[in-house]
Amino acid sequence: MKLFRRLSLFILCFSLAVFINSCSDSSTDPGDPAREEFNSKAAPGESAEYFLQSDSYGNIEIEMDYMEGHKPTTEAVNSLESFLSDRLNKNNITINTSEIPARGDGPYSTDMITTIEEDERDNYTEAGSNTLHAYIVIVDGEYTQNSNVLGIAYWNTSMALFGEAIDNISSSGPISPNEQQVESTALRHEVGHNMGLVGNGTPTQSDHKTEGSAHCTNDECLMAPSVRTGDIFQNISGDVPSLDEACIQDLQANGGK
Asked: What is the rounded distance in angstroms from the CA atom of residue 248 to the CA atom of residue 83?
């Protein structure tokens, strides 16, 4: 009788173990490492491969907030989308623009801009997602460190443009560049930094990095240091400056086009 009871208890326990195991989630292999959480507060250029390649993120979505009175021109937004399409291996590229309240707090420091992002940014890259999210904010003032600076890349997916500096350059005289040209140039330049240019996340394939900064030694290149302050517009007219061949080769070697 005791033997029968023990045998019955063993059968019951074994059946429960089989039942519990069969009800567990078999879709997850404990041997497969989970994708790490995406750090949206890394240094500019540290996510260059994620921008350029499609292995981890097949799509990119850019959230562009602009303060009242500093809406980017349609041409500038289209110019940025065209630039990304030419250089990134992505299935889909989306740029969403929205107005946020003007703050009138300028000149703006980097710390002030990060606070604005924390208040206004809606979307961040999530682990397991196929979409890389980036953020651009256009503020209604100048940069504290240099009033002529058009934009900065301050985190690995975050950039800012300074609306007052853009307005000043695009209205500086009868032969000044137009607003669309200045905006397009600044947008492309700052995104270029988060694509790892120059030698700041995307390794250089030739000697073309300026000493002490992540810029190109070619004075006519989009990534030249003169673009940062708009000084490049003294030497060109009409067109938005392009990446030179050395910068393009860098991007292609790191998974871009």
From this structure: 12
